[in-house]
Amino acid sequence: MLDSIITPDLFAAAIRIATPLALAAIGGTICERSGVVNIALEGIMLTGAFFGTAVVLATGEPWLGVIAAVVAGISISAVHAFASINLRSDQTVSGTAINLLALGVTGFLMKLWYGHPGTTDQIKTLGSVFNFEAPGGGVLAEVWRWVNAILFTHSPIVYLAIIIAIVAQWAVFKTRWGLRLRALGEHPRAVDTVGVNVARGRWIAVLMSGALAGLAGANLTIEQVGSFTENMTNGRGFIALAANIFGRWTPIGSYLASLLFGFADALQIKLQILRGVINVPPQFFQMLPYILTVVVVAGVIGRAVAPAASGVPYRKD
Amino acid sequence: MNAKTSRILALLLALMLVVAFVPGCAAEEEPAEEPAAEEPVAEEPALKAAMVTDVGGLGDKSFNDLAYEGLKRAESELGVEIEVLESAEITDYETNIDSLANAGFSPIFAVGFLMTDTVVKMAPQYPDTLFGGVDEFFETPIPNVVGLNFKEEEGSYLAGVVAGMATVDKFDTRLNDKNVIGFVGGMDTPLIRKFEAGYAAGAKAVNPDVQVIALYTGSFTDQAKGKELGLSLIEQGADVIYAAAGACGTGTIQACQEKGALFIGVDADQYLTVPGSGDVMLTSMMKRVDNAVYMTIESVINDEFAGGTNQVFGLKEGGVELAPYHDFESKVPQAIKDAVQKATDDIVGGTITVPEAP
Q: In which residue ranges of chain B is CATH 3.40.50.2300 found?
């Protein structure tokens, strides 16, 4: 029984499921580090997923779709940036408005462009980057089969997400830009007094989070499923928000937290196979990843300290 | 924050909300277009039948479209005047039913179980209007309402017969040696469980040793989840997968195409409604909502409207059936086709009773 649950695909699935979460979570990290809470990740991801699909449907070029998803993510996050930085509005309200907006706009455009709501036609997807042959028998071959299945069966954005996590970690903690970014979220007035433009710094951070969440949407549609369905993000943006907190507002922490959630989700899918042996309702398994999230966030939040100025609009006067 | 900025902000947010609800407006406006040019010489139509879609709306390639098919057939064959109002939000149900009833439409079909409560509330207010609730079950009978339900388990039983025999066959290279088939469910509701129960029963009837693995996504829109479930099933050795999970099924089709497994569609003939899925689409379990709607209109014309009852459309009534095999037509062995025919005869004849819960 155990060998039907602990399989190479369990770990590969964990990485696949973690990827869109991690990208959005890293976006959330950068955004909050600059002092802007981005609750709109869900809506941005959905927007990216939709426009990515639309462009591939129109051009047949998956990579153009990825670019479109990123651009769409940046565009809609600009609304959040304008509302929360220039208008100094409540960032939760603006974020919620964007989530509603994204759901409405994508559904509306589906109807307008394709004549029906629901699901779009299939698009050309990005397949796995590597395609290694499995060698013959022996223990080594078995080890290789696992390593190959877990690490070398993924599509480009999956690897890109890992690279982004590492580069973002370095950028946030080892560069001058990163120091300013963190200062913006901790004490914007201090940054302002040394002559750095607070609004500009925050704008860049919000747009970066939009790009990353848009890329997460591209991963969902252009790599994973090859079509768009209304509300297909299904709460991933909010899980990403939690992963960002659990990852203590660090890019690598965000990635690892997403990986933990991805693993829990992959595991619950495999555990459902046990329903043939013990009669447990599927809901029990489906709630496991969320329980894990609640426990982990509740357990860690006491020690994790958010950027001091996160969620506070900055007023220069 | 000074007064000016807060005014700008308020305007901006209001604008956002307006845009967010544009689909609602669009769907509401649509019926305003003239449905058909009135011909002055045309005789008075016998009946005015209408439907209210649920939030999926027309173009869902599923039961809203199918119900509309039934209406259109009634229009061309029975000379009935028809009208459709789409609901963009759950809150549109009442308004839509209201305006149709006031315009003198009867029967009015409310499509989808989400509308059950609305029908229960509205029907007594319009005692002279007849209502048909597609996928709706009414615990307390209402004299002017008929519930139109389907025996999904019977159609799923046939899907199970096909899958159970296919997995031990070799008519396609994607069929492996393992005696395992898969099921992907959406939310774990009594309705979806009927699909699972029928499928498992059908498979076990023709192949007692078959292992049926049933996984649930917990959603009807999360395609990526549907794909992950498909991949897990294929890894377990499932070579035929049946999905009753709404849009999640599209993800499962993707998994089947990538990893080489066959797929059985649901509700509509998904060979036709999901373009590009023909290479894995073995067959589909169709819910003939169109037949149920058409037959109900017919019953109104013949003064046989079964108000106050819940009608159940099974194999016998033409409420469920298997779609053609399409690209697999020549590959599927005669033995499977015969077994499906025999199972159909047995269910219609009452020799087999299909369970509703696994």
A: 20-35+43-150, 153-286+321-349
SS3 label, residue B303 = coil
Give residue B285's pLDDT: 95
Kindly state whether residue A315 falls inside one of the protein's structural domains: no
A267: nearest CA in chain B? B232
What pLDDT does B174 receive?
94
The answer to whether A282 contacts B215, with C-beta atoms less than 8 Å apart, is yes
User: How far does the CA of residue A33 sit from the closest CA of chain B (Å)?
Assistant: 23
Whether A93 contacts B13, CB under 8 Å: yes
Please, which pLDDT band fits residue B45 given cuts at 50, 70 and 90?
Answer: low
- B17 vs A contacts (CB less than 8 Å): 97, 100
A213 occurs within a structural domain? yes
Other CB atoms within 10 A of residue A132 CB = 11
Contacts of B253 (CB under 8 A, 6+ apart): B230, B243, B263, B270, B274, B277, B280, B281
CB pairs under 8 A between A and B: 149
Give me the pLDDT at residue A311, please.
84
The total of other beta-carbon atoms located within 10 Å of residue B234's CB is: 23
| pLDDT value for B221 | 83
Is residue B25 over pLDDT 70?
A: no
Residue A310 lies in a domain: no
Q: B18 phi and psi, to 5 degrees?
A: -60, -45
Check if the beta carbon of residue A236 is closer than 8 Å to that of residue A20.
yes
- Tell whether A314 is covered by a domain: no
> In this complex, is the C-beta atom of B249 within 8 Å of any C-beta atom belonging to chain A?
no
Across the strands, what pairs with B316? none
What CATH number does residue A191 fall under? 1.10.3470
Q: What percent of chain B has pLDDT over 70?
A: 87
With contacts defined as CB-CB under 8 Å, which chain B residues touch A265? Answer: 228
pLDDT in tens, A267-284: 999 888 887 777 788 888
Q: Tell me which CATH code domain B20-35+43-150 carries.
A: 3.40.50.2300
Tens of pLDDT along B126-154?
999 999 999 899 999 999 999 999 999 99
**Residue A58: domain span:** 2-126+139-300
Domain B153-286+321-349 carries which CATH code? 3.40.50.2300
Low-confidence ranges of chain A (pLDDT < 70): 1, 134-136, 297, 300-303, 317
Question: Based on the structure, what is the number of domains in chain A?
Answer: 1
Does this model's pTM top 0.80? My answer is yes
Which tokens sit at A153? 């069966």
**Cβ within 8 Å, pair A283-B222:** no
Q: Quick one: tokens of A135?
A: 């060698």
Contacts A121 to B, Cβ<8 Å: 275-276
Q: Does B58 touch chain A (CB under 8 A)?
A: yes
